[in-house]
Amino acid sequence: xxxxxxxxxxxxxxxxxxxxxxxxxxxxxxxxxxxxxxxxxxxxxxxxxxxxxxxxxxxxxxxxxxxxxxxxxxxxxxxxxxxxxxxxxxxxxxxxxxxxxxxxxxxxxxxxxxxxxxxxxxxxxxxxxxxxxxxxxxxxxxxxxxxxxxxxxxxxxxxxxxxxxxxxxxxxxxxxxxxxxxxxxxxxxxxxxxxxxxxxxxxxxxxxxxxxxxxxxxxxxxxxxxxxxxxxxxxxxxxxxxxxxxxxxxxxxxxxxxxxxxxxxxxxxxxxxxxxxxxxxxxxxxxxxxxxxxxxxxxxxxxxxxxxxxxx
Length: 312
Ligand code: CUA
Description:
Layout: H1 17-50, H2 66-95, E1 102-109, E2 112-116, E3 122-124, E4 126-130, E5 135-141, E6 146-150, E7 155-159, E8 165-169, E9 175-181, E10 194-199, H3 201-209, H4 219-229, E11 255-257, E12 263-265, H5 268-276, H6 298-310
Helix pairs in contact: 1-2, 4-6, 5-6
The protein binds dinuclear copper ion.
Dinuclear copper ion (CUA) binds near residues 108, 184 and 189.
């Protein structure tokens, strides 16, 4: 393919080998269209001028010209077929993962992304992958239609509830790629962001082994970080104002009235259960909002509890 790709022309930085291929195709289609638009419009304008009404010239209408008509039908068909072939080749390239791909689960939910690594480790709002290794993202949704969009890799795929879809690519630049949700999915759609961290192979292996609590990080600070990372703030405020779910301010250790009329204490067990099985005990006044279950481990839940304790 012809390489006519000045950097940053209309496109964000390409951070995967596949992105460069998409860009080449994009530029090819772009210049193909520019050349034909200029040629056709130019010829048309020339004819308008050349055959304008003038005294002493009489129009001689042409009824048809079979050779010409066949030519302008058949030639463009070949052009269109060639464009389709190039596009389909790239589509297939991104839809089919290489044999040795690292398979990572991506689950969209209102309003965050959760990633599951091959060893079962989970992470919210950020995903770490090694450079120069093919990665396959297997995408699904917990609730409504979302769309997993990574401009740096030139990839976008809908996250459909009850269905798995996948995309594959090979990152070739160390650094971060931004993830967006590209399908309107409710109030905080625009905040449904995440990051892909591309790291060296060794750092990826180390990352898989360790938990996500940083060395020496206090438990409540860890919980505060998880609150942001898992986008708990989209429903639970920490200043006592009203949200889709109960505010966390002053909740821990206090009595809570459930929809059943029963009163319980918001203790460790209650918080633990409400994160893993949100529908088990619903606070009065919040019956028509469905919180999705979050798969946090015990250390993460302890962090959340420690954080809630600070919100007096
Ligand atoms: Cu999820 Cu928009």
